[in-house]
Amino acid sequence: MESLVHLQPEKDEHKSFKIRPITTEEEMQRFAIEPMAKEGWRPGLKDAECFLACDLTAAFVGELNGKPIATVRISKYGDSFAFIGAYLVDKEYRGKGYGLKIFNAAVSSICLASAFLSRLLRAAGTLGYVAVNREGSIVGYISARPTFLKEEGYLIGPLFANSKAIAQRLLKALFEKLLHQEKAAPLVCMDASTKQGMELGEELQGKKVFDFVYMVTKDIPNTCLEKQFGVANTDLG
């Protein structure tokens, strides 16, 4: 059974929350390694030194009124793949959006496409849900944003999920939110970029508006296409 978490818009009090790179071993030790050890994650003795040796732009600390309360590290494998770790927020500040802000800062440091997604999720009017399993792992997420022309309603995407059932739950939760707004959305569109995305749309009585062709110059990107049901943008994913 998965639970859905509503992504809240940015709050005014977050303006005093500042994110900056971690640039020294002492800071890496204090802000990332020690909190990881307290959580029982068993970091290595020289991890701080090794992390900084790999990439001086790979770790961030979030400070609220000057107090460090969050950290994240991102290991970049070129411009197309990265791994996030040491992702922690002090317990008393969890559930308040600080984790999402520092996560977005890390993701936006990778490349243009990631910066697009990061900005998209923070944009005014954007709605979103995350599906989380019993172990606390993310198994799906969805967002919707207003179209440029207000009368056209909302664009849904990205929609990624570990299964069609999870994707369907996310879509239904989002539809409920859109329909029960003060002014219900007149039209909802989703770029279904895969076969399973098309099937999901048909099962929910969606209507195909047009086709598009996706072309690559080399091999098809090695991504989890079976988990992709909709994209935020046909150019940037």
From TrEMBL:
Pfam families hit by this protein: Acetyltransf_1, Acetyltransf_18
N-acetyltransferase domain span: 17-181
The organism's place on the tree of life at top rank: Eukaryota
A GO term, aspect molecular function: acyltransferase activity, transferring groups other than amino-acyl groups
CDD domains assigned to the protein according to its UniProt record, in alphabetical order: NAT_SF (cd04301)
InterPro entries: Acyl/Acetyltrans_Enzymes, Acyl_CoA_acyltransferase, GNAT_dom, YitH/HolE_GNAT
The protein's name: N-acetyltransferase domain-containing protein
Native species: Pocillopora damicornis (Cauliflower coral)
